[in-house]
Specification:
Distance between the termini: 25 Å
CATH class of the largest domain: Alpha Beta
Number of strands: 4
Radius of gyration: 20 Å
Largest sheet: 4 strands, antiparallel
CATH topology of the largest domain: Alpha-Beta Plaits
Order of helices and strands: HHHEHEEHEH
Number of domains: 2
CATH superfamily of the largest domain: Lrp/AsnC effector binding domain/regulation of amino acid metabolism (RAM) domain
Strand content: 15-25%
Structural class: alpha+beta
Length: 155
């Protein structure tokens, strides 16, 4: 992968629906050469797919970043926890971590009262959890799908 491939990936991250001709012009290639590179990036698995970023409760509600510590870090405990997390659409993201917390989650709620419900009815009942530390986001500064053309240009 060279600088042109990295530039293609950067631009597609900002706008996955960018036309091939616009992408080619932005990276300085002919449309056919650009399409060949995109196809190779897809076939090699570097580009695994494209997605739509949908407005959800976090647009108007509460976003909580939640650090979870488990009782144990055995394969059984990790698997049980991860299986349970996948059952709850209120939890948008879940990362297995190094450091002080075993997992970091991103959960969304319509209000702080709704987040309290999620905390009581979902997070405290996840298997193996011994500690929950929640932080409520005040506002989003940077998030996928919220970049402007100024970001794409580097300004």
């Amino acid at each position: 992968m060279d600088a042109i491939d990295r530039n293609i990936i950067r631009l597609l991250r900002l706008d996955g629906r960018m036309s091939n001709s616009a992408l080619a012009a932005a990276v300085g290639l002919s449309p056919s050469a650009c399409l060949r590179r995109v196809n190779l990036l897809e076939q090699s698995g570097v580009i695994r797919g494209y997605t739509a970023i949908i407005a959800g409760p976090e647009e108007e509600g509460v976003v909580a970043v939640v650090r979870i510590t488990l009782e144990r870090q055995t394969e059984e405990y990790l698997n049980r926890f991860e299986t349970a997390v996948r059952r709850h659409p209120e939890i948008q993201e879940c990362f297995l971590m190094t450091g002080d917390s075993d997992y970091i989650l991103r959960a969304t709620a319509s209000s702080t009262a709704d987040y309290e419900r999620i905390h009581k009815e979902i997070l405290t009942r996840l298997p193996g959890v011994v500690r929950i530390h929640s932080s409520i986001a005040m506002r989003s500064v940077l998030r996928p799908g919220r970049r402007t053309k100024a970001h794409a240009a580097g300004g």
